[in-house]
Design a protein that fits this description.
The structure holds 2 protein chains of 2 kinds.
Chain A (H helix, E strand, L loop, with lengths): L3 H18 L12 E2 L3 E7 L11 H7 L3 E6 L5 E7 L11 H16 L11 H18 L3 E7 L3 E9 L4 H10 L9 H10 L5 E7 L6 H11 L3 E8 L1 H4 L5 E7 L5 E6 L1 H24 L3 E6 L4 H11 L5
Parallel strand pairs in A: 4-5, 4-7, 7-8, 8-11
Antiparallel strand pairs in A: 1-3, 2-3, 5-6, 9-10
Helix pairs in contact in A: 1-4, 1-10, 4-5, 4-10, 6-7
Chain B lengths: L3 H9 L5 E5 L3 H6 L2 H4 L2 H26 L11 E6 L8 E2 L2 E2 H14 L6 E6 L5 E7 L2 H10 L9 H12 L14 E3 L6 E3 L2 H4 L3 E7 L15 E5 L10 E10 L6 E10 L5 E10 L6 E11 L4 E9 L4 E7 L10 E6 L5 E6 L5 H9 L3 E6 L13 E4 L3 E5 L4
Parallel strand pairs in B: 2-5, 2-9, 9-10, 18-19, 18-20
Antiparallel strand pairs in B: 3-4, 5-6, 7-8, 11-12, 12-15, 13-14, 13-16, 16-17, 20-21
Classes of the chains: A alpha/beta, B alpha/beta.
Chain lengths: 317, 400
């Protein structure tokens, strides 16, 4: 899945992010925590018990005030990439291949950038590509990246790693990820994640968010624990505008439940409205709490999604 | 019943639906209320639909079979009057009018139901019954196949009377009946009032003709008469025909004869035809051309002329119009000119008389024999005799 062309495209995105944001896309951000750094931050009043080595003697000599120097503590930014590994992410439409190829070719030819033709991918592969791209950019910016594959619980997790040279092991980890059949349960995953005592940082959740009620509680818990959640909603064109008509039996990929129904044009229009309402609800939730929101359809390339993220600067601080 | 089997089978063996994996049924469940699908009304509606379809198929089959119900069912009686006159030989659309009439008659036969009766009457002159009442249509169909148009005029009036006799007085319907609702039940012998349709089987007379000789078809109002004009469309009128052709011997000329010819142009256009008169010798069969006339007739114009000629032998006098039209029968007419047999004359003279021989030879029809033996006359008792002895002495009808 991650071939040499993919890596070239990652490098291109990394360079592009440096040009646009001056290396401030994800990493090299200073935390607000003050402490034992080398860069001066501010002064505060001395209280009994403070380290006398931190007293600003020059100020005391000039003004007679006992002030304590504070320094900004440099700390690596932790980027947690939550990747939905439920079976619903593995779904692939039969007619996805052709439309994918045409749209991707059109979008790239218009920009004049010669890139590889995207293969037929499902939502999970698409999410893994975006995850790899975000991780690459973060590693290039010397941030710590952790990948959490989850469905009902955390299935696999790549511990926080740092350095661009770790990209190959990260890609290898992504390739070994598999979907399982359990229903998505983001709140319990977040609880499980918090229980491990991670450092605060960015939490990018890549999912289809078809667990309509669960995603709110999961994102809320991330917010409450001082993480900065970012939402990347992934769906297929068929999910947004299905082309099913007539008598059909629908089978839910995660639970195996099936429904026999007769789908008419009117029902299709109602479905599209429902899906749009769902997406708007998710977007409204993110807007309410100041979270960045990206909606990505897998009929476009992952690099287009990254460029869209850069344009909206939703992920960057 | 056979049609119902696949319907039931389709309900029992339901077609396998297309299956499609979806990420979530979340939105579909909001669109379709699943509880309602498994409700009792849904199930009942399924079987009610099957029941209605079966009832519909049953009614359709019942209507198609058209069963003969024992009660209240009256059989139809139809008299088909088919015109087989000469005018039915006219071709229309590659078929003669008679062929079209036969086809229509067969169509009527094919629509007969069990118990229906049919009779066939020929409408040409003289009208006659071809087949009497029968409920076996193939018999009538065979009779139709054997029929062919005749060279006679139409006699539909007589044919309808024959048909009316076939139908019978008890089956007459219409306003002219004295009390059409009052009938006598033949089995019980009780005078009872019945509605017409209950007691009287529906009878009708179907007339298939071109009505060439009738401007307004004479419909017998006491009978239910169906008239079907053959052909259905307006007939083409491009016929020129001989409408009168008579010949007779001349009163003045012993061997002369005259004939009257009338030719009518019944077409809508001016027509040029050639009329040829020939006389065929009855003994030798040789044809002698009598006259040829070129005709140019305006629409509805009649050519009329008397031709005079002479022939001792007489024979078959034929008038022929060239370039046949829709009806070829009236392009040829034939009449007979009776022969004039020679009158044997025996001239008895003492010596040959050249003058007498010349006179007798000049008289038509006289076959003269000259002799000088008076006793021979005794052996010719049936001959007229004239005795000459220098002068005409006497004429004896018989030599006694």
């Amino acid at each position: 899945m991650f071939d040499s062309q993919f890596l070239q495209r990652l490098e291109y995105l990394s360079l592009l992010s440096r040009q646009v944001f001056g290396g401030q896309l994800l990493a090299q951000r200073r935390t607000k925590q003050t402490g034992g750094g080398v860069e001066f931050a501010d002064h505060r009043e001395y209280v009994a018990g403070d380290d006398l080595r931190m007293l600003d003697w020059k100020v005391f000599a000039r003004h007679g005030d006992l002030l304590l120097k504070r320094f900004q503590e440099e700390e690596d930014l932790h980027v947690y990439l939550f990747l939905d590994c439920s079976v619903s992410m593995w779904l692939r439409e039969e007619n996805q291949n052709e439309s994918n190829t045409k749209k991707a070719l059109n979008s790239r030819s218009s920009r004049g950038v010669e890139k590889a033709r995207p293969k037929t991918i499902n939502k999970f592969d698409f999410a893994r590509q975006i995850t790899a791209a975000l991780a690459y950019i973060a590693l290039a910016d010397l941030d710590r990246v952790a990948i959490i594959g989850y469905s009902k619980e955390i299935s696999q997790m790549l511990p926080p790693t740092r350095g661009k040279n770790r990209i190959l092991s990260l890609l290898q980890f992504l390739e070994t990820l598999e979907t399982d059949g359990d229903r998505t349960d983001l709140p319990s995953v977040v609880d499980q994640f918090i229980a491990r005592g991670p450092r605060r940082g960015l939490a990018v959740v890549l999912s289809d968010f078809l667990d309509q009620e669960g995603y709110r509680r999961g994102l809320d818990r991330l917010r409450h624990h001082r993480f900065e959640p970012h939402v990347v909603q992934i769906h297929t064109p068929e999910e947004a505008k299905p082309t099913l008509l007539g008598d059909i039996e629908l089978i839910e990929s995660e639970t195996g439940e099936h429904r026999k129904m007769t789908i008419t044009e009117r029902k299709l229009r109602e479905y599209e409205n429902l899906f749009e309402q769902f997406c708007e609800t998710l977007q409204q939730y993110c807007r309410t709490y100041g979270l960045s929101y990206i909606r990505a359809s897998n009929d476009i390339g992952f690099d287009d999604v990254l460029l869209k993220m850069m344009r909206t600067a939703g992920v960057v601080a | 019943m056979l049609i119902a089997i696949p319907i039931i089978a389709l309900y029992i063996v339901r077609p396998r639906l297309r299956r499609r994996n979806v990420s979530s049924l979340l939105f579909w469940d909001q669109l379709f209320d699943q509880k309602r699908q498994v409700s009792w009304w849904r199930r009942l509606r399924h079987w009610l639909s099957l029941l209605l379809q079966l009832v519909f198929v049953g009614l359709l089959g019942f209507a198609l079979l058209d069963p003969l119900l024992s009660e209240g069912r009256t059989s139809n009686r139809t008299v088909i009057v088919i015109d087989d006159s000469a005018s039915m030989k006219v071709e229309a659309g590659g078929q003669t009018r008679f062929d079209l009439a036969i086809l229509k008659a067969k169509k009527v036969l094919s629509s007969m139901r069990a118990g229906d009766q049919v009779a066939l009457v020929a409408g040409g002159k003289p009208a006659s019954v071809v087949t009497g009442w029968t409920d076996f249509p193939p018999l009538v169909e065979d009779a139709l196949n054997e029929m062919s148009p005749r060279s006679t005029p139409t006699d539909l009036g007589t044919a309808r009377k024959i048909a009316a006799d076939l139908v019978g007085r008890e089956n007459r319907i219409g306003s002219n009946a004295q009390n059409p609702r009052e009938r006598i039940a033949p089995k019980k012998g009780v005078r009872t009032l019945y509605p017409k349709r209950d007691l009287t089987p529906f009878s009708r007379i179907l007339t298939l003709s071109d009505f060439a000789a009738e401007q307004d078809p004479d419909v017998d109002t006491e009978l239910s008469v169906d008239i079907q004009v053959i052909p259905d469309s307006a007939p083409e009128s491009s016929n020129v025909g001989i409408i009168q052709f008579t010949a007779r011997r001349s009163f003045a000329d012993p061997i002369g004869y005259s004939c009257l010819i009338k030719v009518l142009n019944a077409s809508d256009q001016t027509t040029e035809r050639r009329l040829t008169l020939t006389l065929a010798n009855p003994e030798t069969g040789e044809e002698e051309l009598v006259d040829v006339v070129n005709l140019k007739l305006q629409p509805e114009e009649t050519f009329e002329r008397v031709f005079e000629s002479s022939s001792q032998t007489g024979g078959r006098l034929t008038a022929i119009l060239d370039s046949s039209d829709l009806l070829s029968d009236d392009d040829t007419a034939t009449s007979w000119v009776i022969p004039r047999p020679p009158v044997p004359v025996i001239a008895v003279a003492d010596e040959p008389n050249v003058y007498l021989e010349s006179v007798l030879d000049a008289v038509p029809l006289v076959q003269a024999t000259f002799t000088d033996a008076p006793l021979r006359m005794l052996f010719l008792p049936f001959y007229f005799s004239m005795c000459f002895s220098g002068k005409v002495q006497t004429v004896h009808p018989f030599p006694f």
